[in-house]
Amino acid sequence: MNTKQEAKKELQCYKARKVSAVNLESRMRALDRQLENADESYREELSDRRRRFGAQLECVNLWLGAVENALGTLSREEKLTLERFFIDRQPGWLMDLCEELFLEQAAIYKLKDRALRKFALAMYGGEEI
Question: How far apart are CA 111 and CA 102, in angstroms?
Answer without folding.
Answer: 12
